[in-house]
């Protein structure tokens, strides 16, 4: 029986993780659950699965919520609620599926305590990759990427000598606007941006897929996860999302990971590792795969990918600046306060304006993140 804490239990990844857990009741047990604001759903799920801790992270306290928490179950709030969830009930693995830089504090907590992590939060590595990498040198934690592309690379590299690695190849679906012209993309609505052709995900990551920022974040994430320089990480557009990603060696050999287009597969891989449990998402029928296509990403129509590549090459605080501006701009777009095209413009503007900020320590990372977000919220 493996004990699991889920941070972000009411989001898309969290709900799919709970589906895995409930399909294997003899293998997995929930210790703690957190949600941002969905308090009723959080409590109902926690009671049903016997969690000993619930965290409501969208506020710093809620007396009405605390009154509803049953005896024997503890409640926490805000960032502290995320951190406490990492240890409540002594979990074997913590799924971090919260949005944004909020994923960094619980990740650091797990690394400090030697707790395995299923990481579905790109921003924690984008913003704190150098700190995470340093802590991993002495931590007993195993870090499993819960993302179809990064999980694919993890599986391709697992136990393989990387000495002759030529490049990592991340695949991108192309998003909902692949065939659109640039002018139409700039004017896309929230509803159009949220219509991803292949994947079922949360709103923020779905918008990131539409701008290609999600693939840019994955480049930075892969750089830290696999200790590979940015110039060895490429992106190809693969519209069918059947090949989840690939690695290529100097001799021309390519190893690819294929599978159903369902986030439950990488979640199940992380939870079950090193064992491979029976699939809950079905299997590929290769006789039905008539066409697999590949295209070069168009960074003129989707410049966020280029911004991310420039950010990781620049290093320092630039990835944090880029990520903070994107988080704020996507939030404003989802609230219909700015246009789709303004997301990329906000990122480019922030990367130019805040180039002198620092990010050597956790305090500097949080300070930089807040300063950039505040500026975008009030000036874009």
Report on this model:
It is a single chain. The chain has 380 residues and is of the alpha/beta class. It has 16 helices and eleven strands. It has helices spanning 12-23, 39-49, 63-68, 78-85, 104-113, 122-136, 148-157, 182-186, 190-193, 203-211, 213-225, 264-272, 304-314, 318-334, 341-353, 362-379, and strands at 2-7, 28-35, 53-56, 74-77, 93-96, 116-119, 143-145, 165-172, 233-237, 243-249, 254-258. The strands form two sheets. It has a seven-stranded parallel sheet with strand order 4-3-2-1-5-6-7, with helices on both faces. A four-stranded mixed sheet has the order 9-8-10-11, with helices on one face. β10 (243-249) and β11 form a beta hairpin. α14 (318-334) runs parallel beside α16. The longest helix is centred in the last third of the chain and has 18 residues, at 362-379. The chain is globular and about 55 Å long. It starts with a strand and ends with a helix.
Quick recap:
It contains 16 helices and 11 strands.
Order of helices and strands: EHEHEHEHEHEHEHEHHHHEEEHHHHH
Q: How would you name the oligomeric state of the polypeptide chains in this document? A: single chain
* SS field, number of helical segments: 16
Question: Averaged pLDDT, please?
Answer: 95
Q: What does the overall shape look like? A: globular
End-to-end span in angstroms? 50 Å
Strand order of the largest sheet: 4-3-2-1-5-6-7
Whole-angstrom Rg:
20 Å
Low-confidence stretches: none
Q: How many strands appear in the DSSP assignment?
A: 11
| Derived structural class | alpha/beta
**Approximately how much beta-strand content do the residues carry?**
15-25%
Percent of residues in helices: 40-55%
């Amino acid at each position: 029986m493996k004990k699991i804490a889920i941070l972000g239990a009411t989001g898309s990844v969290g709900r799919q993780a709970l589906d895995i857990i409930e399909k294997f009741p003899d293998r997995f047990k929930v210790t703690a659950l957190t949600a941002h604001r969905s308090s009723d759903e959080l409590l109902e799920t926690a009671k049903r699965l016997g969690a000993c801790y619930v965290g409501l992270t969208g506020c710093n306290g809620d007396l009405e919520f605390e009154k509803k928490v049953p005896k024997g179950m503890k409640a926490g709030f805000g960032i502290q609620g995320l951190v406490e969830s990492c240890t409540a009930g002594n979990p074997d693995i913590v799924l971090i599926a919260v949005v944004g830089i909020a994923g960094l504090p619980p990740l650091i907590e797990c690394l400090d305590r030697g707790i395995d992590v299923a990481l579905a939060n790109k921003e924690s590595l984008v913003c704190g990759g150098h700190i995470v990498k340093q802590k991993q040198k002495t931590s007993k934690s195993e870090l499993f990427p819960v993302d179809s592309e990064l999980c694919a690379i993890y599986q391709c590299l697992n136990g393989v000598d990387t000495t002759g690695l030529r490049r990592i190849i991340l695949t991108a679906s192309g998003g909902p606007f692949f065939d659109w012209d640039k002018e139409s993309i700039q004017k896309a609505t929230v509803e159009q941006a949220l219509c991803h052709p292949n994947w079922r995900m949360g709103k923020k990551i779905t918008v990131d897929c539409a701008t290609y920022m999600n693939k840019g974040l994955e480049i930075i994430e892969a750089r830290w996860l696999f200790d590979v320089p940015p110039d060895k990480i490429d992106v190809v557009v693969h519209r069918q999302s059947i090949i989840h990603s690939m690695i290529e060696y100097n001799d021309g050999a390519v190893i690819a990971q294929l599978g159903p287009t369902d986030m439950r597969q990488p979640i199940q891989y992380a939870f079950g590792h090193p064992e491979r449990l029976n699939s809950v998402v079905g299997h590929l029928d290769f006789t039905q795969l008539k066409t697999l296509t590949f295209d070069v990403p168009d960074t003129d129509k989707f410049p966020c990918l280029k911004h991310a590549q420039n950010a990781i090459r620049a290093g320092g605080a630039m990835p944090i600046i880029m990520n903070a501006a994107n988080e704020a701009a996507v939030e404003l777009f989802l609230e219909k306060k700015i246009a789709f095209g303004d997301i990329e413009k906000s990122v480019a503007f922030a990367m130019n304006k805040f180039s002198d900020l620092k990010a050597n320590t956790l305090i500097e990372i949080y300070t930089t993140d807040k300063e950039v977000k505040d500026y975008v919220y009030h000036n874009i």
